[in-house]
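F.,

This is the one I mentioned.
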């Protein structure tokens, strides 16, 4: 059975976005240790899962790196992100622009469990907040890579809406102040 891994940026006080979906708090300076985590995550996946609201920003960013920034240290990962099939869960649209993007309008739990039962590498979820909250609520995520940025917002959007227990597998401090915590579902 495939694992579903979550990779998500968070603030120190547990927000994944500001109250109006602001993401300007994320540390955009990539550290070598963060790039190592990206490598580990991208090599272990064959499908990306996302919610509709996050898709445009994700596909636009990574496609721009592939098309216009071949010298970027993110280029090898951008290429993987662009080339990897992306399944976007939405109740409101039938299709979205972007390379290798498919929209799934079905029931989330059933669809994710069906994907987990397919042969191949793992699945990775990147967000947004509402989509990830549903994955967590239904115990669909097996491992979490939480990139904790050294900033607090005081208010914003969360992904943990009720109590869940996880086991800390590892914690790595990056040179840019980001702390990467890997958790497994108990």
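My design for it:
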């Amino acid at each position: 059975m495939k694992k579903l891994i979550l990779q998500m940026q968070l603030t120190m006080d547990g927000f994944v976005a500001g109250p109006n979906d602001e993401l300007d708090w994320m540390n955009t300076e990539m550290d070598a240790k963060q790039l190592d985590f990206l490598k580990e995550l991208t090599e272990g996946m064959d499908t990306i899962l996302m919610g509709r609201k996050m898709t445009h920003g994700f596909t636009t960013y990574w496609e721009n790196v592939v098309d216009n920034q071949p010298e970027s240290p993110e280029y090898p990962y951008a290429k993987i992100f662009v080339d990897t099939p992306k399944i976007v869960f939405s109740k409101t649209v039938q299709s979205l622009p972007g390379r290798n993007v498919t929209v799934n309008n079905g029931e989330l739990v059933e669809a994710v469990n069906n994907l987990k039962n397919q042969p191949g590498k793992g699945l990775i979820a990147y967000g947004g907040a509402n989509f990830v909250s549903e994955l967590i609520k239904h115990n669909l995520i097996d491992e979490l890579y939480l990139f904790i940025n050294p900033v607090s917002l005081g208010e914003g959007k969360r992904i943990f809406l009720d109590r869940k227990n996880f086991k800390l597998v590892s914690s790595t401090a990056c040179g840019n102040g980001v702390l990467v915590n890997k958790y497994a579902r108990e």
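The helical segments are 32-43, 52-68, 75-83, 108-116, 129-137.

Talk soon.
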